[in-house]
C-alpha cells in the first residue's frame, strides 16, 4: 500500500502529450467534453491577457497572471458540484471566473475597491487570499463542518508550491487527514515562490509525496494536461464526497508571465526555460487533439474566440467605469453593532461631507 502511494506521488499522470496525442496506455478523452473545457481555457487565457492590459493602463493596481496554468484553473472549477466550495489564492482569478463569478467582480479586489467584489456564500467561492496558505485551514474548517452536518459538500483548496513551506499548509493537511475532511488540496507547482526556485524550498522527491506523512493519498499530474487534470481531480472529489477523506494533488505546471507586474522574472530565470514551457502550452495540446478528432474547425474556433472577446470587452467596460466612492463605508463592516465612538465619528464625518 505504501509503495503504491509513493509511486502515485512520484509518477506524473498524463493523458495528452505536448503535441495533443494520447499517451501510450492513456484513455482517449471524450471530444465533446474536452471541447467544453477548451472553451473555458480560451476564456481563461483571454482574461489573463485582458487583466494584464488593464494593469498597464492603470485600471488595475496589480495582477498575478496564471498564463500557462489555465488548465489547472479550469479543471479545479469544472469538477465541482454547485454546492461545493472553492478556496482560491490571489493567482486564481481565472478559476473563480470558471466557477461562474463575473470576471469584473473577481478583479475588483485587485483594483482596490473592496477586499472581495462578490458574495462568497452565493457563489460558494471564498475571498481570494493574498497571504500564503492562510485560506487552507479555513477550507478544511468548511469541509469538516459540512461533514459534521451530514452534507455531501466537497472543498477544493488551491495553493502554490511556495505555500507548502508555510505552517498553515501543515496544519490544514494534518487536520484534514486526522478528521477525514472532504477536501482536495490542489498545489499548482509553477516552480517558483516569486523568485525562489522549488529546489530552494523543498528536497522532498515531490510535493505530492508530502501527503504520505499526513496519511492521505498524494497524486502528481501534468498541470498543463486538461484531460488528465479533470480525471485526477474528479476522482479526488468523488473520493472525498464518498467519505474517503482528503487528497493532495500536485499539478506540474509553470507560470509563463512574471510573478506580478511588479516583478522582473529575467533576474531569476532564463528565456530558454520559459520557451521550453511555452511549448507545453495547455491550449495548444487540447486544440491539436480536438482538431484531429474533427470537432474543432475554423468556424468553431472563431465562435469560441468571439465569445472570449465578448467577455474581455465586458471586463474593459466594467473596470473602465469609475467606482463610486462612499466615505461612510469605512464604518459599515467594523462591528455588527457599532461602538459609541464609531457612531460619533460617523456623525462627524457626515457633517463634514455636508459642509464640503
Automatic annotation (TrEMBL):
Q: Does the keyword Transmembrane apply?
A: no
Keyword Oxidoreductase in record: yes
Picking any one GO biological process from the record gives:
branched-chain amino acid catabolic process
As one GO molecular function, the record gives:
oxidoreductase activity, acting on the aldehyde or oxo group of donors, disulfide as acceptor
Q: Which Gene3D superfamilies match?
A: 3.40.50.970
Q: So which cofactors does this thing need?
A: thiamine diphosphate
* Ranges where the Dehydrogenase E1 component domain occurs: 41-311
**What keywords appear on the UniProt entry?**
Oxidoreductase, Pyruvate, Thiamine pyrophosphate
> What is the protein name for this chain?
Pyruvate dehydrogenase (Acetyl-transferring) E1 component subunit alpha
| Source species | Amycolatopsis acidicola
As recorded in Swiss-Prot or TrEMBL, the protein's gene is named pdhA
Amino acid at each position: 500500500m505504501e509503495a503504491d502511494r509513493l509511486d502515485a506521488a512520484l509518477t506524473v499522470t498524463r493523458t495528452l502529450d505536448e503535441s495533443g496525442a494520447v499517451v501510450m496506455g492513456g484513455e482517449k478523452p471524450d471530444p465533446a467534453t474536452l471541447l467544453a473545457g477548451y472553451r473555458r481555457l480560451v476564456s481563461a487565457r483571454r482574461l489573463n491577457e485582458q487583466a494584464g492590459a488593464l494593469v498597464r493602463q492603470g485600471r488595475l493596481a496589480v495582477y498575478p497572471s496564471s498564463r500557462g496554468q489555465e488548465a489547472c484553473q479550469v479543471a479545479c472549477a469544472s469538477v465541482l458540484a454547485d454546492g461545493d466550495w472553492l478556496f482560491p489564492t490571489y493567482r486564481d482569478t481565472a478559476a473563480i471566473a470558471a466557477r461562474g463569478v463575473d470576471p469584473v467582480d473577481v478583479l475588483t479586489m485587485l483594483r482596490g475597491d473592496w477586499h472581495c467584489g462578490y458574495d462568497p456564500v452565493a457563489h460558494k467561492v471564498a475571498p481570494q487570499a493574498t497571504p500564503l496558505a492562510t485560506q487552507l485551514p479555513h477550507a478544511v474548517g468548511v469541509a469538516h463542518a459540512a461533514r459534521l452536518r451530514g452534507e455531501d459538500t466537497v472543498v477544493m483548496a488551491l495553493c502554490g508550491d511556495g505555500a507548502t513551506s508555510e505552517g498553515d499548509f501543515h496544519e490544514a493537511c494534518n487536520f484534514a487527514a486526522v478528521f477525514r475532511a472532504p477536501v482536495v488540496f490542489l498545489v499548482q507547482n509553477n516552480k517558483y515562490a516569486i523568485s525562489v526556485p522549488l529546489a530552494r524550498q523543498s528536497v522532498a522527491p515531490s510535493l505530492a509525496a508530502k501527503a504520505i506523512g499526513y496519511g492521505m493519498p498524494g497524486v502528481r499530474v501534468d498541470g498543463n494536461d486538461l484531460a488528465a487534470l479533470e480525471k485526477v481531480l474528479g476522482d479526488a472529489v468523488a473520493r472525498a464526497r464518498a467519505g474517503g477523506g482528503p487528497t493532495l494533488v500536485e499539478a506540474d505546471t509553470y507560470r509563463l508571465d512574471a510573478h506580478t507586474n511588479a516583478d522582473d522574472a529575467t533576474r531569476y530565470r532564463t528565456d530558454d526555460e520559459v520557451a521550453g514551457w511555452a511549448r507545453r502550452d495547455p491550449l495548444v495540446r487540447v486544440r491539436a487533439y480536438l482538431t484531429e478528432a474533427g470537432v474543432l474547425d475554423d468556424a468553431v474556433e472563431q465562435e469560441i474566440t468571439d465569445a472570449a472577446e465578448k467577455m474581455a470587452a465586458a471586463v474593459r467596460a466594467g473596470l473602465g467605469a469609475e467606482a463610486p466612492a462612499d466615505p461612510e463605508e469605512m464604518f459599515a463592516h467594523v462591528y455588527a453593532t457599532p461602538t459609541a465612538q464609531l457612531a460619533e465619528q460617523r456623525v462627524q464625518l457626515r457633517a463634514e461631507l455636508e459642509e464640503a
